[in-house]
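subagent[fold] <- orchestrator: predict structure for attached chain, return tokens only, no commentary.
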Amino acid sequence: MQRFVKAILSLTVLILLGAAQPAWNSAPWLADLAQIRAAIDKSYPNRDWLTGEREVSLDRWFDRTAEAIRESHNAADARRSLDSLVDRFNDGHVVLHWPEIITTQNRGRSNQRVPLPATSVQTFCSARGYDAGQVTAGTAAALPNYRKIDTGGPFQSGLVPAKDTTIGVIRIGVFSPQGYPAVCEQAVANTRIAFQKSCDAACDDRLQTEAYAIMTRGLMTTVERLRAAGAGVLIVDLTRNGGGTGWVEAAARIVSPVPLRSAPVAVIRGDAWVHRWHDLAAKLRMEGERTSGADRARLLSFSAQAEDTANNLKPCAEPRCSRLARAGFASGLLSEFPTGELYGKKWAVEVFSPAQFPYRDSVWRGPLIVLVDSETWSAAEQFAAMLQDNNAAIVMGTRTGGAGCGHLDGNDEITLANSRAKLELPNCARFRKDGTNEVGGVVPDVSTGVRWNDGSGFAGRLTSSRLPDAIMQARSLLSGKVPLP
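subagent[fold] -> orchestrator:
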């Protein structure tokens, strides 16, 4: 009897607990899904490429996700359905940032983390996102007879003997200083930042400026020392490089044996872009009116170009108007400019972004090979595509991941009404010499057949077997001859 009473009591408790829990309601999550669809249709620059080149049916994708949400039992299931949808885009710039879960214990408290005072330069740099784990060894270091050498810079480098030459190797694992903690530590020393104290926005800007300068000088020094060590061919290893920042434009120009033109970019027509380009035109015109001589004429010409771009970005309802319109180049208003001519001019970065870095053009002047794989993304693809499109390098490896253009002048996230997750979308598309969208990935000139999950030794041997062909083609490019098929 006692056992029976306990069973009845337990059943009663379960019923009461069940009654206390609100029934699962998928409607708010379906509203979030609809909000994502509206954002994709309105703001995703690669939508037409996705439905055209990849032949994706967005209706089918969203219908299946809606069905999965309706069949969900809780918020965790619905969240997984939305994550799965985002993964299908295979675009590293399409991201859902989920808010922190607020539990009973921390409800009502601030989620903002107060940074602790730095106890060392290492903790100071770590707090600012500097993490050596962002850079892996890459593939070139696994080439047979690879010998690592110390060039005194942040980039791993080495030499590989070949049949009739010596190959220099530079490993760039990411195109931002945050992958190289030693760069931050050196920048702190150079700028004499008191890392034990708080570092405000001006301090962070000073640190970042010096970090980029160290990277720039380090890459140039590495190239020079490899050449001095007898390198006749250069490999820049971008395998497993997840991307980075606009520094890629300067880095490419350092290693390119020929002058480079940056890729054209496009954005979705809209008033916000019109205002940005009108503002740039006004700023350049004001600068021009304050100066005289060649700079005055140059600035007024740049202002007119910016004004033309602004007018081209106006919304257009006519059927002949495409969603996307040209918005300058990956390097800004200008696609090319001789190094050094803009140094010291405070307006230079407004028209040509590489001008902010103290680089020199064509520090390397020999045959160039860029090594990529399916885990080469974003800015690393920009580097490979620009050199390939300018006939400056032979791209070797496997087709890259296909992230394309990320963000121009920052980006506004979209907050989903129900979950409060933030949807991040790219706001630009970058185009190749043949007019195709770079989001399709960079197809190598010399295929190695290496897969992203191959062991390093196997990947090195596969790559080594195709090096003679890549070297021959790189030499032919430099001599102006058409490579043999």
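orchestrator: received. Logging for downstream: The radius of gyration is 26 Å. Confidence is low (pLDDT under 50) at residues 13-19, 102-115, 481-485.
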